[in-house]
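Reading a protein record of the kind used here takes only a little practice. These numbers are not coordinates but entries in a learned vocabulary of local backbone shapes. Here is one such record, which you should read through line by line.
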Amino acid sequence: MNSHKKHFQAFIYLQVLVLIVSLFFYNYDLKLAGAFSGKFSIWVFWIVAIPGILQRFRVKNKLQKIQLFLMKYRRYLGIIVFNFAFIHFMWMRGLDIIATGLPSSIPLYQVFGVIALVLLTPLFLTSNNYSVKKLGKFWKTLHTLVYPTMFLLVLHTSFQGLDYALIYGLPSAIILVIQIYSHIYVSKIQKSK
């Protein structure tokens, strides 16, 4: 196993350990860290989207090297996205819900965030070679859940105010539009051949 994979795996194990330890030492400071965890999850989610877009546009030279590198570690990055999103949820709301029960009302942006996390869960669970082999073509179909997840991410961030909409919602929306366009572009090219 190469050193990059070992580093990704070690980072994933660290995320899980941090979440488990936080269950015993939960305090307000974790909410601040939970907010950062959500932001970092979004940043990595954008990175996960890039290699597929670059691949569909058949980029060359330096961009192709970036695309190939990111594609090689895309599953690890996807797992990191899920872990950060899950930590974000747990530290921002989940641990409070466990301690005090469901609140009487939930802001709409949180509803969008929870639905996005639910949609990410099967992607997380099937981000391994065994699932690719066992699920076959259904694996690719299942992983198209990334598109509604990205749309929900746009809503989750945009409903939190203008700053979040501009900093996180707008780039997510742009990436989503480029992803969809790249699929349409590639299918048109393949049909014309």
